[in-house]
Amino acid sequence: MTTFDEIKVDISVVLGENEMPVHQLLRMGRGAVIDLDVAEDDDVKIYANNTLVAKGQVVLLGERIGISITEVLMRPPDIRPMRTDGPL
């Protein structure tokens, strides 16, 4: 039987986005603040291997920060893996 214990998945959490000219980015130093396009209680986007899979909320875990998943997104039918083990 196949085990999934050794499979690695790259998880990314995006709080917000912004676009700025490179010269502005290069002038930033320690303590600079980048304004994001989200409100305090907006969901973050959770990506697995660069594919959006869920949304969540930022939670504080003592001195650490975590994400509480609020919605798991369904994959569209056209990107499901093709079966290779015979007819459907």
TrEMBL record:
Its main location: membrane. Gene3D superfamilies: SpoA-like. It is a peripheral membrane protein. The keyword Phosphoprotein does not apply. Signal peptide: none annotated. GO terms for molecular function: cytoskeletal motor activity. GO terms for cellular component: bacterial-type flagellum basal body; plasma membrane. Residues 5-73 form the Flagellar motor switch protein FliN-like C-terminal domain. InterPro entries: FliN-like_C (IPR001543), FliN/MopA/SpaO (IPR051469), FliN_T3SS_HrcQb (IPR001172), SpoA-like_sf (IPR036429). One of its GO terms (biological process) is bacterial-type flagellum-dependent cell motility. This is Flagellar motor switch protein FliN. The lineage of its organism: Bacteria, Pseudomonadati, Pseudomonadota, Alphaproteobacteria, Hyphomicrobiales. The gene is fliN_2.
